[in-house]
Amino acid sequence: MHTVGIDMVEIERIRHCMKNDRFCKRILGEEEYRQLEKRGMPIQSVAASFCAKEAFSKAMGTGIRDFSLAEVQLLRLPNGKPYLFFTGRAKAMVQPTGLEFSVSITHTRQFAAAVVVASREVET
What is the C-alpha R_g of the chain? Predict the structure, then answer.
């Protein structure tokens, strides 16, 4: 079984939101914030993180409810490969489903986008 979620956002929208000091603290998890802060908090990367959270909620079929955006973190392995890490209510929501998630992100100067694929082996 597979489900897919996709999201895209204008970089300018995120730039405007980041003028509010609380925005990043509200949408980014602790480790996600640290990783982005080490890289200078690039707007395109913050936008990609935002998109990944939205795409995750679409792949789950729930929309953003019953968890906060900061509980779904877009983290990167040392080689740069992105992955989703869950905490709090998001983790509690994901665990019983048995779903595994793959995420792909991209951005230009104008847009950021993310695709999340949720998959689970179906018993026959």
Answer: 14
Question: Is residue 7 annotated as involved in ligand binding?
Answer: yes
63 in a domain, yes or no? yes
Residue 6 φ/ψ, nearest 5 degrees: -140, 150
| Total domains in the fold of the chain | 1
User: What CA–CA distance (Å, rounded) separates 63 from 57?
Assistant: 5
- C-alpha span between 3 and 116 (Å, rounded): 8
Q: What is the pLDDT along the chain (124 residues), one digit of tens a residue?
A: 889 999 999 999 999 999 998 999 999 999 999 999 999 999 999 999 999 999 999 999 877 778 999 999 999 999 999 999 999 999 999 999 999 999 999 999 999 999 999 998 776 6
CATH number for position 49: 3.90.470.20
Q: What is the pTM of this model?
A: 0.92
Q: Determine if residue 66 is labeled as part of a ligand binding site.
A: no
Tell me if 87 is assigned to some domain.
yes
Q: Which residues are catalytic?
A: 58, 107
Q: Residue 45: inside a domain, yes or no?
A: yes
Domain that holds residue 87: 2-119
